[in-house]
Write a structure and sequence with these properties.
Shape: globular
Number of helices: 10
Bound molecules: magnesium ion
Strand order of the largest sheet: 5-4-1-6-7-8
CATH architecture of the largest domain: 3-Layer(aba) Sandwich
Helix content: 40-55%
Strand content: 5-15%
Structural class: alpha/beta
Order of helices and strands: EEHHHHEHEHEHEHEHEH
Low-confidence stretches: none
Number of domains: 2
Distance between the termini: 6 Å
Radius of gyration: 17 Å
CATH superfamily of the largest domain: HAD superfamily/HAD-like
Mean pLDDT: 96
Length: 208
């Protein structure tokens, strides 16, 4: 198995922001007198596009209004965002092997750009796409813009939506178990390959 191009999700794939996302989500829910979610409940219920998650919890509140609460709460969260183990080394390995790397994330662009600089990861990517609510709507355009041949390209992500985005784009899907969706949940989307973390993916690349 050898890919020439990898499109990475950000949250739960390259960085761990689950703690601050749960903190911020609960602050949003609190504003509307809704009980907070514990980690397990959040992971079971959260999905992308996140508009669907919020439509279920707060059906009558516009997404834009929720985002005005979420963003400052995320910035003020006590739990830090961290680079996931193996992420840095995997991106370095991709450079060594000549694999072109991209990011496609739903994360708000301001927060994403800040994290990319904070973690000094910007130079690892040829191009990044953030603030994308439904990744399926952009995947074809990304493949076309960068002349990515589908059979040489994979999307690496931690959620069902990432697998569905890969399928929609006609590219391979690689699921990682370091993020929001649990293994049995991700398995229902039938990814082409599932790895416990990026370290295992890196070993597969190095040995192929
Ligand atoms: Mg993710």
């Amino acid at each position: 198995m050898m890919f020439r191009n990898l499109i990475f999700d950000w949250s739960g794939t390259l960085v761990d922001d689950l703690g601050p996302v749960i903190e911020a989500t609960n602050i949003v829910l609190e504003k509307y007198q809704i009980d907070s979610l514990d980690r397990e409940t959040f992971c079971r219920r959260f999905r992308l596009p996140y508009s669907e998650f919020y439509a279920e919890l707060l059906p009558h509140i516009p997404l834009a209004e929720l985002e005005t609460h979420f963003r400052p709460a995320f910035d003020a969260a006590v739990t830090p965002v961290t680079v996931l183990p193996h992420a840095r080394e995997t991106l370095e390995c991709c450079v060594t092997l000549g694999i072109r790397c991209f990011v496609l994330t739903s994360m708000d662009s301001v927060a994403f750009e800040r994290q990319m600089d904070q973690f000094n990861l910007r130079h690892r990517f040829e191009a990044t796409y953030s603030g994308v609510l439904d990744k399926r709507e952009l995947i074809h355009q990304i493949l076309e813009t960068h002349d990515l041949i589908p059979r040489e390209t994979a999307f690496v992500g931690d959620m069902i939506h990432d697998v569905e985005t890969a399928r929609h784009g006609g590219i391979s899907s690689i699921a990682v178990l370091t993020g929001y969706n649990r293994a049995e949940v991700l398995a229902t989307a039938r990814p082409d390959l599932t790895v416990p973390d990026l370290g295992v993916l890196r070993e597969l690349f190095e040995h192929s």
